[in-house]
Amino acid sequence: MFLTDSSITTIPLIPCLGSQLKGYLKQQPKSVKCWVRQSDFTAKEGEFCLIPNDKGEIAQVLFGIAKGTEYRWALSALAEKLPLGHYRLQSDWTKDQQQQAAIGWGLACYQFEHYKQSDRIAPSLLLEKKVKRVKAFVAAFTLVRDLVNTPAADMMPQDLAVVAKALSNTFDAKFKQIKGENLLRKNYPCIHAVGRASKHEPRLIRLRWGDTSHPKVSLIGKGVCFDTGGLDLKPSQFMRFMKKDMGGAAHVLGLAQLIMTLNLPIYLDVFISAADNAISNDAFRPGDVLHTRSGKTVEIDNTDAEGRLVLCDALTKAGESNPDLIIDFATLTGAARVAVGTEIPAFFTNNNTLSAEINQASAQAEEVVWQLPMHTPYRPYLDSDIADLLNSSPQGYGGAITAALYLNEFVDEKTSWAHFDMMAWNNRDRPGRPKGGEAMGLLAVFQLLENKYAS
Asked: Which of 17, 191, 400, 418 has the most crowded CB, counting CB atoms within 10 A?
C-alpha cells in the first residue's frame, strides 16, 4: 500500500487536465507522443496511460483529472487498476492535496478478507511527508469498515468490547464495561431493555484517554449489533444488512483511534451503548413504559426505534461530567436517508456556533455533511398520554428530526452537542469507496476537533 524508502526506484504518476495534454506532449520525445496518441488517451477523468521506456518497462503513468477534482479520490482508481509496482506522485499539488490523494490511495487498497481471501496485491505509493498522519487516517477508515462489514455472528456486544479493550491497551487508555443485569444496578435501564432478549448481554462500553486538564470531549456510538426491529419486526429486505446497525459504535472507535494516534490535546471519553435487538419472551413491547437514566419515562411506540433508547442513557451519563462537547454517531433513521441520500451524513446540533464550526470543518475536510433543523415545533409529536415522551412519532413525518428531538431531551441545553445520523454503508462501488461498511462524517468531525483544540 505505502512505501517510505525513497531510495527504491519508483514510477512517476503524472496528473494531466485535458487542456494541458497538448502542452505536455510538446515537451515529450516522439516515441511518447506516438504512444499516448495511439493509446487514445485524452486525459478525461478516470483515464490513465502506461508509458513504456525502450526496454518495454513502465516509465511513467499519465492520468486524467478534471477541474475541481476531489484530490482525495484522484489516485483511487489508479490504486485499484495499476499493475503491481512502486509509484510516486509527481505533481505541483500542495502538501495538503498530496496528503488527501495518498489517503485516497490507501482507502482504495482496502480489502475485507476475514472470510474470503483475495489474490489481489495492491501497488505501493511512496510517502515522503506526513507518513504517520496518512497512515492514521487510512487505519481509522479500515477499522470502521472492518467492524461494520463483520457479520453479527462475530460482532456482538462482547466483540465490540474486545475491540475497545485492545485500543485501550495500545494507547494506555482506561477501559470499563457494565453489562447484563449490572446495567439495571448502575441505572442504564434503556440499554438493558433493548438488549435483554438476546443471549448476548447488552453493555455500556467506556474508553477514557488523555490529560484530564485538557478540554473534555465525549463521543457516543450506537452499537446495536443486529436489529431485527424487535417485536415490530422489520421486513426481510430491511433486515438484510442490519449487521451495520452498530455503525455508530464503529465510527467512535475509529475516530478515537485517530485522535489517540495523532495525540490530539483533548480528554477523550468514549461511550458505546451495545445491544442485540433480538426477539424472545423477554423482548420489550410496544406500549411498554421504560425508565431512563435521566428519570424521564418513555412509552414505546415502536420497538424498531431502539437506537435512540440505547443512546439516551449514554447521553445522560456523558452530560453528568459537563464535557466541553458531546458528539454522537448513529445509524438512526431511514428518514435521514430519504432527506439526504445514503452517502451524506445528516447532522443536528443545539448550538449555532457549533453548527458553523461543523460546516467550516466540512468544507476544509472536503467531506459533505448536511445540517437538518432541530425543529422544536415538532416536539409535541413525541407526547405520550402516560409517560414523559414517546420513543417515536406515530404520525411518521420528519422522522430524522423527531429522533433528534428525542435525543435532545437527554442533553443539557448548556452543553454543546452534535448528533450525526448516517448510513455507514456504501450501496455502490466507487474508486476508494467499495460496497459495504464505510466511515461517514469522520473526516469532518476530526477536522472540527483539530480546529477547536489543536490550532
From this structure: 191
